[in-house]
């Protein structure tokens, strides 16, 4: 009996230590992503709690959250405590760069979804076990930034061991490399922190990239897109929203729109948008998923509709869509003095 009581007490102590460690990690994220309210949102703001969006028609909208408001919400609220439309609007307004890691962690809700399902050391176990895909992963990371090679390899191996059905397929490496670059602790670290604290930060960010990859592949359905090489642009709903003239052209050429777009839409925009614009789009993608990418693709097709409809050969149209559609659309947006992401989102 006493042995059982002693074991129960030890188990409780271990659980308390784990919870304390998780809380400490979350504090590290927020302390290293301090807000800077000097980073403005480039909008005309009046002195009240409203923002003027149309001077001529005297239209107003609530101000976006400041960096301090974002930080307070992340620290004190769960995702389901915020009204969906309000959260969506503020994410679309833009997330401050130095709050991005903490905000991504919060809006994906991986703490309450993915991380709660598994033991705290599962990631360490997954990356420590050899995988049948190790040779493919080694070959793949040679093409990536050498600074992140070891880290990307560990996360790819952990994923291959986690998702035994897929293991490793092309495209997962691009997602992981992007996340690793954006969440690199060296971009956010407070230099006053000790070396040990910095190491704990680095270790947690590695796990954060892993769980965010799980979120994108499973929750946002990119696993299916990469595995089956399919896209939501094949859905009837998307086809019905295409401009009639472009739909007619595609039927005339006897091709599918997905045959003309060479890569998944996430990579399509990453390739053609400037880094800061893609980062802002990715913020929204993490919360809204593929639907926001479809909406933006439609906007670029609408802007370029006259030019698109002049193509008579599939090969020429394919080159235009994959290399020129976005830059051409951006040039037209800039001519009407619109900020790109404000126009798109």
UniProtKB/TrEMBL annotation:
All residue ranges annotated as the Rab-GAP TBC domain in the record: 94-289
A Pfam family per the record: RabGAP-TBC
Full protein name: Rab-GAP TBC domain-containing protein
InterPro entries: Rab-GAP-TBC_dom
Top-level taxon of origin: Eukaryota
């Amino acid at each position: 009996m006493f042995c059982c009581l002693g074991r129960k007490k030890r188990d409780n102590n271990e659980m308390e230590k784990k919870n304390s460690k998780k809380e400490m990690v979350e504090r590290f994220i927020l302390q290293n992503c301090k807000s800077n309210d000097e980073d403005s949102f480039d909008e005309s703001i009046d002195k009240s709690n409203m923002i003027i969006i149309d001077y001529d028609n005297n239209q107003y909208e609530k101000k976006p959250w400041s960096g301090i408001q974002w930080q307070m919400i992340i620290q004190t609220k769960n995702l389901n405590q915020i009204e969906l439309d309000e959260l969506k609007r503020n994410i679309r307004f833009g997330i401050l760069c130095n709050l991005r890691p903490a905000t991504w962690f919060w809006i994906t809700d991986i703490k309450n979804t993915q991380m709660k399902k598994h033991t705290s050391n599962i990631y360490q176990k997954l990356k420590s076990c050899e995988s049948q895909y190790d040779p493919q992963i080694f070959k793949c990371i040679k093409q990536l930034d050498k600074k992140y090679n070891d880290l990307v390899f560990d996360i790819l191996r952990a994923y291959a061991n986690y998702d035994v059905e897929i293991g490793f397929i092309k495209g997962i490496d691009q997602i992981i490399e992007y996340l690793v670059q954006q969440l690199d602790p060296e971009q956010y670290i407070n230099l006053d922190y000790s070396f040990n604290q910095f190491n704990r930060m680095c270790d947690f960010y590695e796990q954060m990239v892993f769980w965010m990859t799980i979120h994108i592949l499973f929750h946002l359905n990119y696993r299916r897109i990469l595995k089956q090489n399919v896209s939501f642009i094949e859905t009837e709903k998307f086809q019905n929203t295409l401009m009639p003239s472009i739909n007619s052209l595609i039927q005339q050429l006897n091709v599918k729109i997905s045959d003309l777009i060479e890569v998944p839409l996430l990579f399509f925009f990453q390739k053609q948008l400037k880094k800061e614009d893609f980062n802002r789009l990715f913020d929204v993608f993490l919360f809204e998923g593929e639907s926001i990418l479809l909406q933006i693709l439609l906007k670029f097709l609408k802007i370029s509709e006259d030019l698109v409809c002049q193509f008579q050969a599939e090969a020429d149209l394919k080159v235009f869509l994959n290399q020129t559609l976005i830059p051409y659309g951006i040039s037209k947006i800039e001519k009407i003095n619109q900020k790109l992401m404000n126009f798109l989102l």
